[in-house]
From TrEMBL:
SMART domains in the record: HTH_LUXR (SM00421)
UniProt superkingdom: Bacteria
Ranges of residues in domain HTH luxR-type: 140-205
Protein source organism: Paractinoplanes rishiriensis
Molecular function via GO: DNA binding
Single GO BP term: regulation of DNA-templated transcription
One Pfam family matching this protein: GerE
Keyword terms: DNA-binding, Transcription, Transcription regulation
SUPFAM superfamilies referenced in this protein's UniProt entry, alphabetically: C-terminal effector domain of the bipartite response regulators
Keyword field contains Zinc: no
Protein's UniProt name: Helix-turn-helix transcriptional regulator
PANTHER family: TRANSCRIPTIONAL REGULATORY PROTEIN NARL-RELATED, TWO-COMPONENT RESPONSE REGULATOR
Length: 207
């Protein structure tokens, strides 16, 4: 729940049956489906929208989705038919919070991933994390000061799929403290997203 209301989502996919299937699954899980589109047409209405699920069709589609969601609190979730190292890198670098391969997409994985994203977490399957590692190890590195024990603890819980509230409860921190720690970790690791930070920390062996 977002405050006292159910989370809102817009579903984009080139196939109407896929859109309707995702909508039915999410509605049963108490999501409110605001609308549907194919290749972002008609253009999604993102005002007060929590999640935009869009079909990744290359850089142009990704840039359009990022533009639509910029300046607001809308989180991006991408479905993808052809998973490559380049596509994973592009999506994570652009701030996509979850990547869902069509071949392995199920009702449970869709609902679980969107709930994680709404809670402020990321949802990146292990095989995609491996692809991302190849990229982030070339562009990011630990700062000379490294990570302190508190930062490592928060990163471990992020890697386990926990959201800000769950981390705060587990470590007995305030949610504000957790957010500040995450910010510091992203800065130290030269990462833009939590997914990148987890990938870097995993590769460097610090979690």
């Amino acid at each position: 729940m977002i405050g006292q209301r159910p989370p809102t989502v817009w579903i984009d996919d080139s196939h109407a049956i896929v859109r309707r299937g995702m909508a039915a699954c999410l509605q049963q899980a108490d999501f409110v489906v605001r609308g549907e589109s194919a290749v972002l047409n008609p253009e999604p209405v993102v005002a007060d929208l929590d999640v935009l699920v869009f079909e990744y069709g290359g850089g142009a589609t990704l840039r359009r989705a990022v533009r639509l969601s910029s300046g607001g609190g809308t989180r991006l979730v991408a479905t993808v038919r052809d998973v490559t190292e380049q596509s994973v890198r592009e999506m994570v670098d652009a701030g996509v919070c979850a990547i869902l391969p069509h071949l392995t997409l199920t009702a449970d994985s869709l609902i679980t991933s969107l709930r994680a994203v709404v809670a402020g977490n990321v949802a990146l399957p292990g095989d995609m994390l491996a692809k991302l590692l190849v990229h982030v190890t070339q562009t990011s590195h630990l700062g000379p000061q490294g990570l302190n024990p508190r930062e490592r603890s928060v990163l471990r819980l992020l890697a386990d799929g926990m959201d800000t509230r769950g981390i705060a409860e587990d470590l007995r921190f305030s949610e504000r403290t957790v957010k500040n720690v995450v910010h510091d970790v992203l800065t130290k690791l030269n990462c833009r997203t939590r997914a990148q930070a987890v990938a870097v920390a995993t590769r460097e062996g610090v979690i």
